[in-house]
Amino acid sequence: MSLETSWNLEETAARRDRYYSASQRKFVPFKDPIVFRKGQMQYLWDEKGRKYTDLLGMNVCISVGHSHPEVVKAAMDQAQELTHCTTMFYHPVPAHFAEELTATMPKGPKGDIEWVVHFTNSGSEAIDLAMAMARGYTGNLDLLALRTAYHGPTSAAQSVTGIAGWRHPGMPGNVAFVAEPNQYRGIFGRNAGAQPYLDEIERVIDSSTTGRIAGILIESVQGYGGIIEMPPGYLSGAAERVRAAGGLYIADEVQSGFGRTGGHMWGFESDDVIPDIVVMAKGISNGFPLGAVVARRHIAEPMAEKFMFHTYGSNPTSCAAGRAVLQVLKRDRLQENAKDVGGALLKRLQDLYQKYPVIGDVRGRGLMLAIEMVSDRAKMTPDAETTSAVFEACREAGLILSKSGPHRSTLRMVPPLCLSMEDVETVAEGLDRAFDMARKG
User: Across 94-226, where does the E strand assignment appear?
Assistant: First the structure.
């Protein structure tokens, strides 16, 4: 038995337009559709065989490389033996993976923090679960989230997402937003540091909540918000203030985790702070559907009183892929590679900043980088039109990345962690050509 698949671009586009819901339309990035047929490590090939360097990692899901042979083998071996096993039965693969994930978590100054894992189908479901866990443990309803945060498209995750384009009617309430500590265009000016934004958290708790809160959700580096790093002292200071109001610190590592920021396995580690709950997904299994909530044992314990179930959450095939991801990350020193290659690429982005006045800011760390476009550097006026032009030109230059940020004026680069030093020159030259093409119109 074989299933026929047409790789014709026009046929695929027509079939999508006919059978996909309108809700799938907005997220298509290019003016003209593109069909990818093959991926290998940091590269992609379209249906005509043209090669691209992937700077998007299929929305940060590809951590160790497209179709990584060891990840694929681990998943195939498990799928051939037992493709799925519901969590109501025991299976060793998810159990091993839970143990291995908790081993990556900080144990605290006394070495006594116990971590436990609840596997979900996706990062959005993991966010939903983390919100329920925080509310159930604290007995409080109000949650804080950052403006320009993105936490997912489910109803609950949308309620803590601070970008209008991602929000739909009918979201649950009891969420108050605090200003994100953007050091480029934040409400307190450039390079304002953490303190005024920490003061803002206190003001929001006093004015927009009951005064007792369930917690705060923070992306350690904002992803769709435009690669916004948290300044030194912000994560630890936010945790301190939220805990004083009865809440928990929930670290969203869906995009910034698994060594992507280079200096640490988890983004929150850069600020020497330990969360109460950590949410992870995307790169956790290199493209296989999986998410996880990793929480301190005592915080997760109250959830034993009611049923909580995610249909594919502990799927052994995805968990087998996840175990292989952890092995490859460690063996191939991909966290260190992210730091070195990302540092080299950031320097080349800084060269582009000197060359093209339309670039307002370049930022990020590790392999989580961004270029923000402006029509006026002094006024920092967002320039979505030029961003789109450069974005389209990047495709012609053989680069795949994304438009992000609340104004769609930022080019976001989150490639597979196997991007090499040899790729840096290719990427820099491609971006240079793209900016030049956009400038010439």
Answer: 115-120, 143-146, 175-178, 215-219, 221-222
Q: Are 310 and 343 in contact (CB under 8 A)?
A: no
CB atoms within 10 A of CB 256: 31
* 236 torsion bin: left (phi>0), alpha (psi -120 to 50), beta (else): alpha
Q: Contact at 8 Å (CB) between 273 and 109?
A: no
The kind and range of the H/E element at 37 are strand 36-40
SS3 403: strand
Computed over its alpha carbons, how large is the radius of gyration of the chain?
21
- 228-229 and 221-222 beta bridge pairing: antiparallel
Q: Which two tokens stand for residue 30?
A: 């290019």
For the beta carbon of residue 155, count every other beta carbon within 10 angstroms: 14
Question: How many CA atoms lie less than 13 Å away from 394 in the CB half-sphere?
Answer: 24
For the segment 123-173, what is each residue's pLDDT rounded down to a tens digit?
999 999 999 999 999 999 999 999 999 999 999 999 999 998 888 888 888
∠ CA 255-261-264, nearest 5°, is 110
- Distance between CA atoms of 54 and 71, rounded to whole angstroms? 18
**Which position has the token pair 């490590």?**
41
Q: 105 vs 10, 102, 157, 315, CA distance in Å?
A: 47, 5, 24, 22
Across 378-404, b (16+ Cβ under 10 Å) vs e yields eebebbbebbbbbbbbbbebbbbbbbb
Buried b (16+ CB within 10 A) or exposed e, 320-354: bbbbbbbebbeebebbebbbbbbebbbebbeebbe
State the pTM of this model. 0.95
Calpha distance 42→40 (Å, rounded) = 6
Vertex 332 angle, CA 331 and 334, to 5°: 120
